[in-house]
Amino acid sequence: MDASGSLDPFVEVRVGNYKGITKHFEKKQNPEWNEVFAFSRDRMQSSVLEVVVKDKDLVKDDFVGLVRFDLNDIPTRVPPDSPLAPEWYKLEGKKGDKTKGELMLAVWMGTQADEAFSDAWHSDAAAPIDSAVINAHIRSKVYHAPRLWYLRLNIIEAQDIIIPDKTRFPDVYVKVQLGNQFLRTKAVQARTFNLLWNEDHMLVAAEPFEDHLILSVEDRVGPNKDETIGRVIIPLQSIEKRVDDRVLYGRWFNLEKPLIVDVDQLKKDKFSSRIHLRVCLEGGYHVLDESTHYSSDLRPTAKQLWKPSIGLLELGVLSVEGLHPMKTRDGKGTSDTYCVAKYGQKWVRTRTIINSLSPKYNEQYTWEVYDPSTVLTVGVFDNCQLGEKGGNSNGNKDVKIGKVRIRLSTLETGGCTHTLTHFWSCTLRGLRRWASSTLPYASRPHH
């Protein structure tokens, strides 16, 4: 506390050797944090929970007051029970005497089904370095992959092609780019100013269609030397979507002259080259972005063609046992692991459990099921983003420990399967068993 009496308050939540810390406020006597802390019961080494209010200081943080709770007296709350209402608690001094100030909080024994679980700070996922960058790498997350469309492109012909060198027949091809996808047509030697290719090509476009389809007409003037005759840039958002077998009509697109041109030659030649294309986004197909043997989704791209879902897949990621150490910390072998599960367009990632060869996650996820002939994939990774300096400054990639695939057609409908699943990893010396994971999963039909 400074001379004016103002505080830079923050809160420490302590159970034994585990400690969670809120953000701090500058010069604020009535702060609001709205942060949640979760401590694993399996690792509790104390019977007392302490919530300590402190004043941030450059040299040593000052004690303001605390609230103590006996863990045996804390109520249990399991959904669908209503959340516990927060209450005001008088702050105590270090000797147990009442001090000025109150702290509003709610404390309860909960489960992974709790609404606050996914957003909470977790004691078993506490990073060795307290950093906002690190915390972003260890929290549980849900990702939704963008919908993919096939882009059908029929390059038909080009007209009124103009080249500077009139003494030779041009050797012309079309180069196509969409994002990081590249392709080209065969080269056609032009004895006239009109060229014919009539080639069909397929590319993949992703929503929300921020990329452009770029076609460049090139003249091969020599070995490893091409000159651009003209090009056209087509925004994906302007391309027609097709979900049936209706006839697709061609369109003419004007070719733009390259930026570096001969001004005198441009005055002589009226540049009117154009290219004839059929192009559309095909919504009637499923884009194969997975192995056909282990596909998790077989639906066409267009939502209007989807059939109703046939059930709900529930996955509980409980624990992993028998992990091999993936790194050394404080002279001991350890791992910082998380699980990733993928089904359809939805990816889920559990929080990272720090310093454990037998991590327990206790996280639950659900997916809509449209086809029983699909596969759920679950993988275990070692988090390599928790270095001394934090972040991914060295470009470290997380290490894949192993994965397991579960065919939905093998699950019991309406029941729950609780199994110990072995993870296998393929190495140069063959298969090696890395760990075992406990995964309950269920398939529930819609009525």
UniProtKB/TrEMBL annotation:
Show the SMART domains listed in the entry: C2
**Domain C2 stretches:** 1-89, 128-253, 294-422
Q: Which GO terms describe its cellular component?
A: membrane
Q: Which PROSITE patterns match?
A: C2
Name of the protein in question: C2 domain-containing protein
Instruction: State the source organism's domain of life.
Output: Eukaryota
Where does this protein come from, organism-wise? Ananas comosus var. bracteatus
Q: Where in the cell is it found?
A: Membrane
Please give the PANTHER family that the UniProt record associates with this protein. MULTIPLE C2 DOMAIN AND TRANSMEMBRANE REGION PROTEIN 9, PHOSPHORIBOSYLANTHRANILATE TRANSFERASE ISOFORM 1
Has UniProt tagged this entry with the keyword Transmembrane helix?
A: yes
Q: Belongs to which family?
A: Belongs to the MCTP family.
Keyword Repeat applies: yes
InterPro entries in the record: C2_dom, C2_domain_sf, C2B_MCTP_PRT_plant, C2C_MCTP_PRT_plant, C2D_MCTP_PRT_plant, QUIRKY-like
Entry keyword set:
Membrane, Repeat, Transmembrane, Transmembrane helix
Q: Name one Pfam family in it.
A: C2
Membrane topology note: Multi-pass membrane protein
